[in-house]
Amino acid sequence: MLSNLAHRALERAGLGPIRDKVLSKERLTEEDAVRLFEVKDLAAVGALANHVREERHGNLAFYNRNVHLNPTNVCVASCKFCSFARLDDQEASEGYTFQLDEAVEKVLSRKPLGVTEVHIVCGLHPTLPWEYYTELLRRIRAAWPEIALKAYTAVEIHFFAQKFGKSYAQVLTELKAAGLDTMPGGGAEIFAKRVRRKICDDKATAEEWLEVHRTAHRLGIKTNATMLYGTIETLAERVDHMARLRALQDETGGFQVFIPLAFHPEHNMIGKAFPKPTGYDGLRTYAVSRLFLDNFDHVKAYWVSLGERMAQTALSFGVDDVDGTVLEERIYHMAGSHVPQGQTESSFHRLIRLAGRVPAERDSLYHVLKVHEA
Known about the structure:
Largest sheet: 4 strands, mixed
Protein name: Aminodeoxyfutalosine synthase
CATH architecture: Alpha-Beta Barrel
Number of helices: 16
Helix content: 40-55%
Pathway: Quinol/quinone metabolism; menaquinone biosynthesis
Strand order of the largest sheet: 9-1-10-11
EC number: 2.5.1.120
Function: Radical SAM enzyme that catalyzes the addition of the adenosyl radical to the double bond of 3-[(1-carboxyvinyl)oxy]benzoate, leading to aminodeoxyfutalosine (AFL), a key intermediate in the formation of menaquinone (MK, vitamin K2) from chorismate.
């Protein structure tokens, strides 16, 4: 229940009408969301977002046991915010491409740790054959039948379709037959054409990203959704991004979670021009997304991007998921992230409990596997 103190703070901030909409479960407009971004009283907005979060999930905070696999960082795209991609797999350029046996073994080596999901994202490699991507899934599935395979972003699916002369449906159907369970949400960045033209003009457009996810949902593949914040986008462009996700979710119901991702400025082309987003900006982005995305069940704070302390704090600003153990993460660490390379389950429990929440281990489809009461 929203406290009297929070009610008064929202009134003082001029958010009484928005508060009333939220409490009556009336959908917020894009103008409402921009207003929430602009208001100075972060605590008041956070309290409202926390009310919605606790209505949906009580005191639970979700996580899973996962390992990341990035089979190659060779990429033909030239996204100006990216610190992961390389033009070739020569040692001097820090580019690499795993052989299939090597990639599979990296995943299987984590089996004794009780991992339940492998998260696979590649660069857009110019010469790897289609069979590399399907065989990778097929081999992991054969060796580890119970593992959940969350693989290949919409940008990769679009790239595969163009390169190999297939439709999105054909690509996804063949990947699903090879073992694909769900899809990550990367590559969305910001949907606004103005922004994409300046920071990622040579990869899938916003419309193409959305169409890939629409197709995946029609095929019964659940997916995630992301938003990169903290580069050149305006607050209105952030809201437009979320509005387009909300519209597709109304249409298909196939998104599982929304994940705002903080821009990391290290080791990329635009890092000197744009500092890392502040904690204030991160928390308000999580809070506004929880209030605006009324048809998304979950909002995730990706602790590798945000940092452990901010992810913990976000659990009181609308967030209910802190991702997972994230073993072998490369993309954000190559962008300068200084968080540990993976977390133990016990450290996750401690982080969540110290935030006043109850750890709940989930699978890739957000089924609760175990609630770890104190």
